[in-house]
Amino acid sequence: MLLVLEQTLNGLQLGVMLFLMAAGLTLISGIMNFINLAHGSLYMLGAYLCATVAQSTGSFLLGIAVALPGTAVVAMLLEAAALGRLYDRDHLDQVLATFGLILFFNELVKIVWGAQPIFLDAPAWLQGTVELVPGAPYPAYRLAILVVGLLVALGLYLLIAKTRVGMLIRAGASNREMVGALGVDIRRLYTLVFGLGAMLAALAGLMAGPIYAVQVGMGENILILAFVVILVGLVDTLGRAFLPTLLKIAFDPATAGAVGASVASMAIYIFMAAILAWRPTGLFGGHA
Amino acid sequence: MLRRTVPLAILLALLVALPTVAETAGRGWWTGVATNILIFALAAGSLNLILGFGGLVSFGHAAFFGTGAYVVGILGFHADRGTPVVTWPVELPGTYQALIAWPLAMLAAGLLALLIGLVCLRTRGLYFIMITLAFAQMIYFFFVGLEAYGGDDGLSLWQRSELPGLDLGDDVQFYYLVLALAVAAFALKQRVVDSRFGVALRGARDNDRRMRALGFDTQRTRLAAFTLAGAVAGLAGALIANQTEFVSPSFLAWQRSGELLIMVILGGIGSILGPALGAAAFLLLEEVLAAWTEHWMIVLGPLLLLVVLFAKRGLWGLLERPLGTRAEVPRD
To answer: Is A256 a member of any domain?
Structure first.
């Protein structure tokens, strides 16, 4: 019973990462109709920036304070210089251009930080354990990830539903030409949304740092899993991004113990295939 | 007509003469490089059938390529040890026979493409890209999990496939066989594209609704093209397993799928020979850049971005521009 609880919590952490990734991807694809494969590179960049600052200053919080805006700035510069030109091009162009960026970022990280994984320790004040139920200590850091995930979900909801920027984002998602025609600087809105998505990816990456290794290509697997999450839910509104993520938890670490590793790593994809064969538009029937 | 056949004949003559020239120049390894290029040309050409002519951006083509490679690898593995591949319902021994292993590789890859296509083709646009990528990743993890066949590390082959009358272990003879297969495949592709089926495929790409109104089952056309492309990629995989005498899950990694896409774009999407040109350009660029710096990816990545931004028609488009023909560019 305790094991199941622990596995579920572990699954939820991956769920939080996937939620942050899927939310960013959905924001960007929903508003700019842009598929950003380099989203995983931003995840990696966030982790590396945070690890570097945390190692040299000893403060995880300072690492976060540098990594989040740092990644956002890199992403916004990229968007303004190159990617922004691709919004009106077909998806193939977007895939290839962002694939090129992945190659670039992986190699850049290899040159700057080396090919070996680097380590990022959880902040000292989160290194203890918490007893959720008596007799079952659980790492505080992992619990903190869940809390952050919930807070970000809430924050995103408030941002999208309650603020002026959120209103523009929603308007842009339904008809971007019209928003532009109404006198909104749509280019600036795009850049802003891109930066916001990058920040979410960086947050996921730096939180993953202490649990998984900070290494070259760390963002690629999670990117593909985030695609699966999007596909299964076909997330068209942000609120829905969290639901399929919850489904995902049942499938990764918990199943790994029960069946062979091969089937476990395939399970989520088989699940996706089954769902899509049954309902091509995803569980919640968005528009394909 | 002449404008097309004369350059093609010259190209073919150059390819036929290549091993001899390489030998005389004392650079025998050129033949190996050329074999590699021809194999990837075959794989990229098969992708172009669905990408360029079908308008389907498949990001999982390496899955079929790798599956073909693994069929040859696994059959060889069992032939080497004299153990059966399966014992139930009938006992099947392993084999090195190309005439058995290669068609099986095509069959397995084609069947896989049929199954994956059945699910994937129900989606469009962005979702099609994501779902083909996800399925390829699933097949990748399947082979990573096959501990009996080396898992993550892959499988070394002790010899190449056997074909009566030829010694495939000889690099030059193997090169000529690959060349013959590649030429046959590209000729077949030209016929397929020009056939009624090919016209229906392009029609479905350009205006699906109109084609359906005309009574074409566009979904089935696309599925047939997807399956055919998968089978040809499987053949390319069988050849690469022979060329490298090694198979591993890295053949199916999603970066491989991306590289195949790059080859198609670099060469010129929607042209028959473009992908071959792209494969040659990509692999030669890799050779040159890798000799220059170990971090060649840092050059390749931005280069790719520039090609996408400014040279969408690819190398073939540059070659053809003087002739004034319009390049075909797929839409989503």
So the answer is: no
